[in-house]
Give the backbone structure.
Amino acid sequence: MSHLETFNEHRSLLFAIAYRMLGTVTDAEDMVQETFLRWQQTAQATVKSAKTYLATIITRLCIDHLRSARVQREQYVGPWLPEPLMTEQTTDPAVSLELADSLSMAFLVVLERLSPIERAVFLLREVFDYDYEEIAQMVGKSPANCRQILRRSRQHISDRRPRFPVSDQQQEQITAQFVKASSQGNLQGLLTLLAKDVTYWSDGGGKVSAALKPLQGAMKVARFLLALRSKWLSTSVTHIAEINGQPGIILFVNGCIHSVTTFEIVDGYIQSVYTMRNPEKLKRIDEKLNCQSPQMNSKPISSEKLPT
């Protein structure tokens, strides 16, 4: 098997690791490309497992990238959110739950609390099911150290992860109710969906208008959302699509993407609202849909299978 054939066999896995590590499609694709360049310079005969070898390369590249990006994150204008990713619905409930849990915006945001090494160990073990010997090789630590790192990582994020998963049906229902209430300007309808301590996050990257600080509290968030909706109502079209493995809302204004919104739902209420407005992080979805929004408000968006 050629270098390219072997690499393509594992390309989806490599993208999946990089996207969860870095939170942006562009950076993940750059890491995949750099991994391929390094793989081309490797003698395959010296490699016992191409899958582990390639995963090691991209994991270390992502760790280095996160370390170098830390200063940029600190200088970012307003909250930094991961880039939304359009995904494809699956009829397998087990696959759907696993996909939503490890790709959800809430999960990716929680990962930001971890150091690069902690994030790598946590993902490789909890999401991709590598054993400790493999993980130790990938991150340059001992297996015992990796166990300690994983234990510490779990403690860091355990208080932010919902205890009980939300079903696809409940997520779809709450998302549809949110769209209906916001489009009708129904303040009370929104308040019945939002947790009392709900937090609204908006990422404009300093390129478009967005809340520079998170908003907290059901009344404050509901009024803010209705004010935004009122501003764009006459020229906007709303569409529900699968974003990061869960129902999300794409808002189009004048035929082009204005924002993408996803939710974290806990105990039947919206606990967090994540709205992406940064045009750089919406570019991939915008190109994928080709600004066809006016024709799509009454039918589902079809999307090619993306690596997950």
User: Anything to note?
Assistant: The chain has two domains: 3-158, 168-295. The chain has twelve helices and six strands.
